[in-house]
Specification:
single chain; 266 residues; 6-stranded antiparallel sheet; 11 strands; Kinase-like_dom_sf; 3'-kinase; NH2Glyco/OHUrea_AB-resist_kin
Length: 266
């Protein structure tokens, strides 16, 4: 799958392939620069490549070439990891970096992004799941419906801001990869900071409250509104996991949702 692009773009393989459920990746060299060749395996990844081009390296990795399912990206070569920071005593700073990167991505651009996915479409799986399972999912769905009916500060969204999608590009700083090309209220993009299942402490209520203060202050968001987006997003995440099915990760997402709902009721 990589061979046509290695030839077309004069690339040299520089590592082992990385295979995920949504894409195929290969570290390469392009004009003596480290790059990542990514071939999309689903439509969300194809949409994401268009958004990466639109950002044009401002807050996100540069796109060196793009054709069909394939995109050639600037490769992160820095040694720092936001996930490692969050697990090793620098949780607050990791959250601040995520917020600052999101703010760069949300900044107005001169040209509009054609045909972004509206958030209301992104949430389409939550209401059927809430009807099926009820309980916490029903509460999350009601909050999501209220948010989507009355959006604020609408902008182009990354759609999947978390500790492994903001990488260390050394002199260029922390930059985003793997967006979803959404459009809606900017508060949505900060909810996933609280829902990254790779971070074991996300179900700790004390950690949750501390990060709520850090993120709401850094992002300039009303804490109540941020809590509502966390509940809505965590419910959506749980609905997706239940559909897989992945019961363990669904329960983690529901636990985060219950913490947010408890804080809203306090």
């Amino acid at each position: 799958m990589f061979a046509p692009y290695l030839d077309r773009w004069s690339l040299i393989s520089d590592g082992e392939p990385i295979i995920t459920h949504s894409s195929r990746l290969l570290p390469v060299l392009w004009q003596d620069r480290p790059a990542m060749l990514k071939v999309a395996a689903d439509i969300d990844e194809r949409y994401g490549a268009l958004l990466m081009r639109w950002w044009d390296g401002d807050g996100a990795a540069h796109v060196y070439a793009h054709e069909g399912d394939a995109v050639l990206l600037e490769r992160a070569m820095g040694k720092r990891s936001l996930l490692a920071m969050a697990m090793d005593g620098e949780d607050d700073e990791a959250s601040r970096i995520l917020c600052r990167t999101a703010a760069r991505l949300h900044a107005p651009r001169e040209k509009p992004l054609p045909d972004p996915i509206p958030l209301i479409r992104w949430f389409r799986d939550l209401e059927p799941a809430s009807a099926k399972y009820g309980g916490t999912l029903a509460d999350c769905s009601a909050i999501a419906n209220a948010l989507l009916a009355d959006p604020r500060d609408r902008t182009v969204l990354h759609g999947d801001i978390h500790h492994q999608n903001i990488l260390d590009f050394e002199a260029r700083g922390w930059l985003a990869i793997d967006p979803k090309r959404l459009h809606g209220e900017r508060g949505f993009d900060f909810a996933n900071i609280f829902a990254n299942e790779e971070l074991p402490v996300i179900t700790d209520p004390a950690r949750f409250r501390r990060q709520l203060a850090v993120v709401s202050r850094e992002a300039g968001l009303e804490p109540k509104r941020l809590l509502q987006w966390i509940a809505a997003y965590s419910g959506l995440s749980a609905a997706w996991f239940l559909g897989d099915p992945n019961i363990e990760q669904a329960e983690t997402a529901l636990t985060v949702a219950r913490i947010a709902l408890s804080e809203l009721a306090a």
